[in-house]
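pinned: reference chain
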Amino acid sequence: MERFFKPKRVRSGESSNEPNISEPVQNQSCVELNLNDIVSDPGLRKSVEKFDISLRDHVRREYLTRGPCQPIGHMYPKTSFGQQHRSFQDIWYQKFVWLEYSISKDAAFCFWCFLFKTQNKGGRYAEDAFTKTGFNNWKKAMERFNEHIGAVNSCHNDARIQFESFQDQRHSVSNVLRSCGREIDIAYRTRLTAALDVTRFLLKQGLAFRGNDESTSSSNRGNFLELFDWYSQRNTEIFEVVNQNAPANNQLTSPMIQKDLAHACASEITSVIINDIGDNYFSLIVDESRDSSVKEQMGVVLRYVNKEGRVIERFLAIVHVSDTTSLCLKDAIDSLFAQHGLSLSKLRGQGYDGASNMRGEFNGLKALILQENPYAMYIHCFAHQLQLVIVAVAKGNIIISEFFVYVSMIVNLTGVSCKRRDQLRQIEHDKIVALLDSGDIISGKGKNQETSLARPGDTRWGSHYLTLLRLSSMWASVIGILGNIQDDASTSDNRGMARGLIDRMNDYEFVFALHLMKYLLGITNDLSLVLQQRDQNIVQAMSLIDTMKSQLQDFREEG
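pinned: its C-alpha cells
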C-alpha cells in the first residue's frame, strides 16, 4: 500500500502537525534540509539534535565537507586576566585538530563533540563549554583542552570514534554500489554523469530547470527533462542505460534530484573559490537590486590575488535582504562570511555605488566596516563616477538637457509597442537593402546588423552614447516611423507629439547638439570601457583620466 502514498516535503525548521504514520498524499511529511542552517561559525550554529532525526546524518556530512572553523590569521581580541592580556592562538590548531574558534563569541569549541554529542558510560554528556556556550579562559587553555580530551572512555573520545567511523569509506554509497555489482555501478554513474552534464549546461546558460510551469505534461516538461532526453538519444548505449534499463525509482530526473545537483555544483564551486583565497587578503564588491519577484537581492563578489599573482574576481553569492539599510546589509555580509569561514580582518578593499546607504560617512556600509577593520579601503567605481558626472554636467546645460529630453521622447514614442518597433526595423531593413542594391554600402560578416533605438539610463555605462549612435545611423528610419505615427495614430496627443518631434529633429540646434554630444561621449565612453577592465589599477586609472581631461580641454580651445 505504500506505493499509493506520496510524501510532502517540508523545509527543515518548519513544524508539522501531521501524525508520524502513513497517510494519503496530502498529509505525510518528509523533511528537507535548508542549507542556510549550515553555518561555519560554531557560535552561531544550531545543534545537530535540533534537526529532524532523518536529516542529522546529512547535516553531519555537510559540516564534515566544510571541516572545522579555523580562521587562521584572524586578529583575535585580547582578554584581560589580572595584569596580563591573552588571546586565542593559531598554533593550537596544529596540536588539537578538533579545535574550532567562533569569531562572534570569541570562544573555542570542539568540532567532534558538536557532531557526535553522546553520553559516556557514567551517563554524563559532553560538556556545554565546548559545544554550546564556548570556552574562552585563555590563561589555562592548554590545560583545559587536555582536560576536555580526558580518559579513553571520555565523551570526547567517544565522539572521536564516531567521527572516524562516520568517515569510513566502507559505509559509503560508492562501496555499497560496488558490492551490488560492477554493472549496476557503471549504469548508475552513466545516469549521474548525464544528469550532471545537463545540469552544468543549464547553469552555464542561465536557463530554468522546469521552465515557467511545473506541470509534467508532455507539452511543457521543462528544460531539464527535454535536454536530458536529447542528451541520452545521442548515444544508443546511454539511451538504453538512462531510459530503458534504469529502475523507476532511480531515473535521476525528479525535481528534488535536479535541485540537489544544482546545490552540489554551487557548493563545489564555492568551495574552490574559498580554497583559492585561502589566508590571503581580499576585497569586497557589493550591489543590491530588486528582482522580478520584487525582492531585494544583494550580489556579493570577491576580488583577490591568487597564488600565481593574477587578479581574480569571483561571484560568491546572491543574498536576499529584507531592506537596503546599511545595518541590514552589514548583517547579511557578516552571516555570509561566517557561513563560508571568511574573516573580516582579511578585507582590504570595498567597492560600492554612490548611494548614501553604501558610502555614508557615519552610518553607511563603508563606515560600519571601517569601524571593525580600518584597513578596508573604500573605492567608488571610477566608471560609475564618470557616468554620473557626465549626466550631472549635461543636465546643468539647458540646451543639452533639453536635447536629451527630446531624445528620450523619440525613443519612447517609437518603441512604446512591439508594432512600432517592428515597423522601425522594417523601414531600416528596406533602407539597407536599397543601399546594398545601389552599391553605396557593402555587405560582410558583422555588418548591417538589425538594430533598434536603445533606451538611455543615468546609471548604465555608455547607454547615452549608444542611443546617439543608433539615432544617428537610423535617422531617416526614425523620421519615417514618426511620420507614420503622425498619420495613423489613434489619439491626437500622439499625432501632435510625433509632428513636434519631426520638427525638432529637422532643427539645426538639435542636429548640432547630436553631433557635439556624440563626439564628447565618444571620448568618455572609451575611458569608461578601459576603467571597467579587470586588470586596471589606480595609477593607470588616474593617468587615463588626466589624458581624457587634456583631450576635452583641447577640444574646448581648438575644436
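why pinned: Residues 7 and 28 are 5 Å apart (CA to CA). The longest helix spans residues 182-205.
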